[in-house]
C-alpha cells in the first residue's frame, strides 16, 4: 500500500490516490463489521460503522505496526467504547495485525480471542475496555508514563460521545491538563446517538465547552472525511500546548443507508438476508470475499520489556524494637522511601489523592517530587492511572484510605485486574480503626471486595515490622497486590518469650500464617491490628485456665492448610476481626472447614452493625469486640461444647 508517508503524520495532506486506498479499506472493513455481527447473532454495528474511519486513520498514521506491538516505544491507541470491537478487529485484520477471516468467523464465539469487547490477546489491542468512561484515564496514565520515562511516543484515546457524561472523564480531563500531557490526543466519535436514543434527549453533552473549560485544545472535524480527519490528527499530534481533543462528527451506521442514524442499531444486528442484501446493493460482497490472508492470532498480551519487580532489590529491612509502638502506615511510608532510594534503576511512583500526610507518602514526595503523582480528590481516575503506569513498567504504589481506595474504586480495580496491571494498592484506615471520622470512612469490606478480584493478592500486616516486610515483598512480586492496615499505633508483636516476633531475619511468605501463641483448648484466627488484641484475649483466658492459641491470618485469600488443620485439631476455632462478620476471614475459614470436613467448634466475631464517630476502642466495646467481651464469649463457647 502506498500509505507509508502517512506514518507519524509525515505528509501535510493525503493524496487523492491514498484516499482511494483508504476508502477501499473502509469498504472491506464495513463488510467485515456486518458479517461479524450477523454471523455472531449479536454485537454493535451502529457505533462500529461510525468509528471505523477514525480507527483506520489512526492505525495507518500511528507509530505502531504488526511488527511493533511489543515495542515499549510504540504509539498506543486506547479504545474506550469497547462495544465497537467489530470495527477494531476489522481494522487490525485489514492492516495485518491478525487474520480477518478468523475474526469474522469467530467473533463473539465461545473460546475465541475475538470477544464482544476487545481482548488483550489480539495484537494491537492495548486495553480491554468495557466499563465506559475509563479510557481517558488509561491514556493519561500511558502518556504520563512516557514523560516519566522520557520517551517520545504518542497516545491516542478514542471515545464515544454518550460516555462523556461519566464523572471519571472530568477527573481525567483535569489530570491531563495538570500534567501537561501534550503527547495525548483524544478523539470523540460524535454520532449523536446512544443505546436508548438521541443524546440530546437522554443526557445533553456540551463537549466543546467541557474540554475547553478544563484547558484542552479542541478541534472540530468531519469523522468520515479522510482529508479533514488526517489534518485534525496531524495538528493534534504536533500540538505542544497540552492535550488535544478532536470532536469528530460522524453518522451511526455510516455507509449502510438502511440503518444510518437509527439508534436501534447501536446493539441490533442485521438478519442474514438483510446482510446479504446490503452487501450486494453496496457492492460490498466482492470486498467481503477479498480477504487478507494472515496467520492465525497468537495470544499475546502487551507487556513491559522487563517488569520493575524483577529488578527490585528488597534491601535490608527496617526493624522496629518492641518498645517502639508505631502505626503500620508509617512503616509503609518508611519502607517506600527506602526502596526507592535503594533502587536507582527502578522507576518507583506513588499515586495520592490529597491524603499524602495521612497515608504517609509525603516523605516520598519530598525525596522524589516528580514521582509523587498528586491526583487530588479524584479516586476513580487515580486508580486507573495507577494501573496504566504499572502497565508501562513503572513500579506504582496507589495509597489511599480503604473507603476510597477499595470501596469507591472497586470497578476501576476490576478493569485493571482484567487488563493484567501490576498495582501495589496500599490502603490505610480500614475496619473500625479510622479515628473519629464515623461509619462513612470505616471500610469493613476490604476482604470480601478484594476477594472478588481474581488476580489480586491481599496482605494484612499485624505490626510495623510485618508491614515493612510485606511492602518489600509487594515491591518485588509482579501482579496486583493490596496491603490493608488500620490508622492507629499498634504494639510491636513479641513471641511468648518476649522476643521480637517479626525480627530482622523474618521474611514474609504469601500464604503462610503465623503462630503468635500456641494453645491446647482452641485457637483464635485473626488478622491485622486485631492480632495484638487477640493476644490480650488469651492472656485473660489463661487466668480462667483456658489455653488458646493465636494464628495470624496474613493472607486471607490464600489458606494455610497446615496451620488451619492444626487449629481445628484443638477442637475450637474462633475468628476475630474488625471486618463485616458476614464476609471476612470467618466466612473464608468456615467454608474451608466445611469443604474439607474438618470438625471443630467454630464461631465468628466481627463487625455486625455500622459504626459511629468515636474512638476505635469505644467502637470495639460497642460491638463486643473488645478483649474482655471476646474472652467472655469464648468462655461461654467453651463451656457449651
Core attributes:
641 residues; alpha/beta; six-stranded parallel sheet; 39% helix; elongated
Describe the structure.
- The radius of gyration is 28 Å and the shape is elongated.
- The chain is of the alpha/beta class.
- Helix 5 (135-148) crosses helix 15 and helix 15 (379-391) runs parallel beside helix 17.
- The strands form 5 sheets. A 6-stranded parallel β-sheet has the order 10-9-11-12-14-13. It has a 5-stranded parallel β-sheet with strand order 1-2-3-7-6, with helices on both faces. It has a 5-stranded mixed β-sheet with strand order 16-18-17-19-20, sandwiched between helices.
Furnish the topology, listing elements before pairings.
Blueprint: H1 16-40, H2 45-61, E1 76-79, H3 85-94, H4 100-106, H5 135-148, E2 155-160, H6 167-178, E3 184-190, E4 193-194, E5 197-198, H7 199-202, H8 207-214, E6 217-222, H9 226-238, E7 244-249, H10 272-281, H11 285-289, H12 308-311, E8 326-327, H13 328-342, E9 348-352, H14 362-367, E10 372-374, H15 379-391, E11 395-401, H16 402-408, H17 410-418, E12 423-428, H18 446-451, E13 457-459, H19 464-476, E14 481-484, E15 489-490, E16 514-517, E17 522-526, H20 531-542, E18 548-552, H21 561-568, E19 572-580, H22 585-596, E20 601-607, H23 616-622, H24 627-639
Parallel strand pairs: 1-2, 2-3, 3-7, 6-7, 9-10, 9-11, 11-12, 12-14, 13-14, 17-18, 17-19, 19-20
Antiparallel strand pairs: 4-5, 8-15, 16-18
Helix pairs in contact: 1-2, 1-3, 1-4, 2-3, 2-9, 3-4, 5-6, 5-15, 13-19, 15-17, 20-24
